[in-house]
Amino acid sequence: MLKMNPPGKVKTIRRHGTVGGLLHNAEGSWVAGFNRAIGTINALQTELCAIHDGLVFAWSFDINQIQLQSDNLLTVNLLKTQDATFSSFSLVHAIANLLHRAWLVDISWIPREGKSSAD
């Protein structure tokens, strides 16, 4: 099972976001990564966008098991609700649709201190 830590960053002065992420194998070695600028956006949208992009990225590599780790508890809770597929947040809805594909995605919250690849 690969691990994905999708950090999203928002510059506080201009609120311009960037998203990216890393895929690690079971030993913690880097497998692949992605990033892109996403423009003016808030912190929650940035995190959701990073997760969405990361899942699309992982799917393109034919990965069938992934452990998604986020340090944003609100994001984790939004994605773990049974109603995520019907969410009014378009990114939550899109991520929920990705989660229903033929693969295993384990979503977990980790403290910021445990997410060493974020910085």
UniProtKB/TrEMBL annotation:
<dbReference type="InterPro" id="IPR002156">
    <property type="entry name" value="RNaseH_domain"/>
</dbReference>
<dbReference type="InterPro" id="IPR012337">
    <property type="entry name" value="RNaseH-like_sf"/>
</dbReference>
<protein>
    <recommendedName>
        <fullName>RNase H type-1 domain-containing protein</fullName>
    </recommendedName>
</protein>
<dbReference type="Pfam" id="PF13456">
    <property type="entry name" value="RVT_3"/>
</dbReference>
<dbReference type="InterPro" id="IPR053151">
    <property type="entry name" value="RNase_H-like"/>
</dbReference>
<dbReference type="InterPro" id="IPR044730">
    <property type="entry name" value="RNase_H-like_dom_plant"/>
</dbReference>
<dbReference type="InterPro" id="IPR036397">
    <property type="entry name" value="RNaseH_sf"/>
</dbReference>
<feature type="domain" description="RNase H type-1">
    <location>
        <begin position="8"/>
        <end position="119"/>
    </location>
</feature>
